[in-house]
Each structure stands twice: as structure tokens, then as C-alpha cells.
Amino acid sequence: MPNKHVKEMEALKEHLGKHQLKLTRQRELILSAFLRQEHITAEAMYHQLAKSDPHLGLATIYRTLNLFCDAGLAQARHFGTQTQYDNISHKGHHDHLICTDCGKIVEFENCDIERLQEEVATQNGFIIKTHRLELYGLCSRCRH
Amino acid sequence: MPNKHVKEMEALKEHLGKHQLKLTRQRELILSAFLRQEHITAEAMYHQLAKSDPHLGLATIYRTLNLFCDAGLAQARHFGTQTQYDNISHKGHHDHLICTDCGKIVEFENCDIERLQEEVATQNGFIIKTHRLELYGLCSRCRH
DNA sequence: ATTGAAATTGATAAGCTGTCTCAAAATGAT
DNA sequence: ATCATTTTGAGACAGCTTATCAATTTCAAT
Ligand SMILES: [Mn+2]
Ligand SMILES: [Mn+2]
Ligand SMILES: [Zn+2]
Ligand SMILES: [Zn+2]
Hints:
2 copies of one chain form a homodimer. Chain A folds into 2 domains: 3-90, Arc Repressor Mutant, subunit A; 93-137, Dna Ligase, domain 1 (2-Layer Sandwich). Chain A has a 3-stranded antiparallel β-sheet. Chain A is α+β, with helices and mostly antiparallel strands. In chain A, α2 crosses α4 (58-70) and α3 crosses α4. Helices cover 41% and strands 22% of the residues of chain A. The first copy, chain A, is globular. In chain A, 23% of the residues are buried. Chain A is built from 5 helices and 6 strands; from the N terminus they run ααβααββββαβ. The longest helix of chain A is centred in the first third of the chain and has 13 residues, at 6-18. β6 of chain A pairs antiparallel with β6 of chain B, so a sheet runs across the interface. The structure holds manganese (II) ion (2 copies) and zinc ion (2 copies). One zinc ion binds next to loops of chain A. Chain B binds a DNA duplex through residues 20-27, 42-43, 55-60, 62-63, 66, 81-83.
């Protein structure tokens, strides 16, 4: 576990402590791998980790990534067919631009859009809990 | 087929003609049922139509609703677990507010948001083809 | 109206992603 | 060190949608 992931490790431990959950070798391992990327699917991580840990089960990966979501370190996104687990440990809320050709994902944040969303909700008597904004198109390289 | 659905029927016929597809009793039937609602799942329509047509297959419903998507009459949305087929025949693009408590869905359109989306895309070198904006929360009734 | 190539249908098998089950192993409070 | 509790791994299972394929229907050309 690299030194730079200490803060996230602490956050996980705090969540575990609050919910009578245990810290296992697998959870440490998966956290370390997870924090190295921005978005990853359970299967992709399964294959990635199989090289060093051939007996790590896919179910454990799913369970652990979902645990990270509960702990506020990850967020599940549904860009394509498989769930992408988004690393939100060191950044706040954000939305995505997705290239339908090469799969490139760009994260962005736009306060004006967020404010207008609240406005729309208020006009309709809603109180927003979460939202999902995804822009699909072609990135600069795939456009040509 | 009610008289008021003639325009959509024509749109479907045009799509069929352009793609060497045939007009069948099932397609007419499913179109008629589809146009009576704003959003519906394939299974919901299956059960709805089973009352009058017990032999209409679920696969045919799926195939036909996907055909409507190709023809521009419908749009597939993924609010929950099942695909919702959105009737866009008589309205343009729109986004949704969804109550997580009672499932109520409100459609809205906000040009300012759309414009800001284009801005974000341009800043990142993207050209938007489609987008998805969903606001999840509590409606006025479920808030209390 | 009849023909016949091509498309469609219905029943069901299969596919895909993700969760559940459960015996064995690991954890950690005492 | 003990031992109740949690976790793991392997595979079964579940939910939703698409693929398969023989039988039927459509429709353009007689
Ligand atoms: Mn992200
Ligand atoms: Mn709609
Ligand atoms: Zn691209
Ligand atoms: Zn509600």
C-alpha cells in the first residue's frame, strides 16, 4: 500500500469500524489497485489482479467495490454494459464526457449546470438527491 | 388504430419502406399500444397486450420497440432495472426528473442547460451526439 | 388470385452481468 | 489463545435482453 493512499485507507478503516466489518488482505489489495485508476469495471480489475493473485474471486471484487461505494470512496456509473466504478476518493462530484468511438472519458464539473438543475427541480416541486449527466460524442481525435 | 396516430403510422411505414421491412399485424398493434403512453417497459406492454392477444411473444415486443427506436418514434432509457421505452413521436428531445420513492417521472426541457453542455463539450474538444440527464429525488408528495 | 422469395413471428435457449449460497478460512475483541 | 463473527472463493442462480430456428405471414411479381 503506497504511502499516498494512507488517507483513503483511513477512510475505509473508519467505515469498517462503524459497521462491524473486518479489514482483510483482499480489501487492502483491491483498494490499492482501485486507487490507481479513475474508472474500472469489476471484470477488468479481476483480470488485472489475477496476474498476482490468481485465486482472488470475482464475487469478492464486486463485493469490495460495492463496499467502497458505501464508504464513499467509489461511485457506480453505467456508461456502457458493465458498471464502471468511479474513483471519487480525492475529488468531489463530477460528470462525464464519453467518446463513443474510442471510449475516452473526460471528467468535468460545471456549477452553472448544477444550479440550473436545482432550478428545474424546484419548479417541479422536486428535491434532488442525486443526478446523472453524461455527454456522448466524439473526442477530438476520433472526429477525423 | 385511432385516427390521431396516423402520422406516427406514416413515419413507421416510411422507415419500413426504406429498410425492406414489412408491416405486420403485430407491429400495428404494438404501435397503437405504445403511442397511448409516455414510458413503458417491454414486459409491462407484454402483460397489457396479453389480455387481448395472449399469443403475442415477448421477443416480438422487444424487437418491435427497438424497431421504433430505429424509426425515431421511441428512445430507450435506463431509469431502473428494466429499459423504459420513451414515446418521443410527438415531442422533441427532453430529460427527466424521477422520484425515487414513488417512481413518478416528470419530463422537462431546458435550453440553458443544453447550451452549457455544448460549451463544456467544445472546451474539451468533443462533439456531442447524444446526452443523458436524469435528476433523482423526491417529488412534492413523497417529500412529506 | 397465385406464386414464392424474403421477412417475421413465437417459443425457448442462450448470453451477459451481477448477486446469492455455503462450507472453509480469516479476523479481531476478549 | 479462544471463538463468535465476518469474509472468502467457487459456482449456482437470477433478471433482463437477444439469438435461434421452424413455421407462418407479407408483398411484389406474375
Ligand atoms: Mn469519474
Ligand atoms: Mn420521456
Ligand atoms: Zn475518441
Ligand atoms: Zn414521489
